[in-house]
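A student in our group prepared the protein record below, which I am reviewing. I have pasted the whole thing underneath without changing anything:
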Amino acid sequence: MPAKLQKTTLMTNDSVEQDWFIVDAQDQILGRLADKVAVILMGKHKPTYTQHVDTGDFVVITNAEKIKLTGSKADVKEYDHYTYYPGGRKVVSYADMMERKPEKIVSEAVRRMLPKNKLGKKMFSKLKVYAGSEHPHAPQRPQELKVNN
């Protein structure tokens, strides 16, 4: 007789338990940090990962203003967006973006590594990025998460 087969269990929205993690971005490399955070937001670090369900956890990133880039990317990298007016392409250099909105640099890097659909938007909403070391999520008791040791 063949051995008893085990069934694969799929998660549902009701059965997902989400934790809170906090990541210190000081002296971290942007792309490597964004990769680790995107995996946690998607839930791929859990054995209960289900592709069509948001099984990921919440992530709070602090010290976004102290993130690092490798090589000459800091001189070359640009961020652009379109205003939907003719000739409305706006380009901002990395240095200007770091001066004005350092948290947007980290959040854009993570957002671009998530799925490009409604589920990806839901996953991205669980990311909280702050330029300094202070954040208002202490009541959620986030666990310290070490990335890029």
